[in-house]
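Most newcomers find our protein records easier to grasp once they have seen one. Read left to right, the backbone structure tokens trace the chain's path through space. Nothing more is needed to start thinking about how sequence determines fold. An example says more than a description, so a record of this kind follows:
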Amino acid sequence: MKKTTCLYYIDIVGTCNLRCPSCPVGNYQPTDFIASQRPKGFMEISFFNKILDKIEKETKNLYEHTIIALYNWGDPLLHPEFDKFISSIRSKGFYSDVSSNLNIENIKEVVVAAPDKLIVSLSGYYRETYLKTHKRGNPHLVVSNLFRLRYYMDKLKKDFFVEISYHLYQTNIGEDVERIQMICNDLGFHFSSDSTLLMPLEKNLKYTDAIPLSEEDKELVAMMLIKPEEQISFAQAYKATDCPLRDWTVINFDGTTALCCAVYDYQHNIANNFLDTPQTELDNLKRTHPLCTECMGKGLHIMASYQAREKLDKQIEKRLTELDSQLCRNPSHLRESVLTNTHETT
């Protein structure tokens, strides 16, 4: 019997145009890397097609559905040939999943490409709020793009799922979030929200080892709705549970294969070229990697995959009530299926 779904995160863009403090693109310093710094670049469409051919060959008899998420730490809408990647995915009968901060100019081209799902990462409506957590971004551009997105979807008769993923901080749960919810209601887009994580995994490993955070990381933690120590505490009761992140394959723009979607440093890559390494070997490398043992021993895999859902939801609602947020009166805002979107481009 076939399994239901397999998921591949493929970073077709090896960087981002923003520098968000909760994301390693924004918070990783040169001294944080174990060896060399992470490279940047764009994936070639010809190489991507070879990746899809390999995925099709290795999964067609094992899974009913294959999801290709064109992101991990990079923003796919920055790729000048984004539409070709969506076309290639569609030609294979795979499902295309895209996440972006939507700080782009080519919104019509995105609609023409019509991915199956578009996640828009947001953390505020007003500029003062938004720039604290989406640094280098422009909320006016993002909001205008949401309206243009609906306009072109209607005009071109393109129907795909749009989710506004709102990152919860202590600083953005007042009028900012209310305005974003109203926009979602007006435009017919799905609104979801969840607590922010301190990413990548390497930062949390240092945190649990009591290694001092940088001043910038301390500022982020001070803004977080649910602190890292709370998230880690919730995870302890479930840490014997297997890690779902090991069931997903993460491919960087240059074809190297990452240990998982929560890890940033190339030092932890498990393969130099996805094309040269059978999926069975990749799966075994993930499950025998020493970093996995360390991570799971501390329960960090539960935190990274939001598996302590009941405890986390209760704490989120408690904190929202304490801060008198409108969100606490509408608990349906919490994401229904976090495991398919552990993090979005921020």
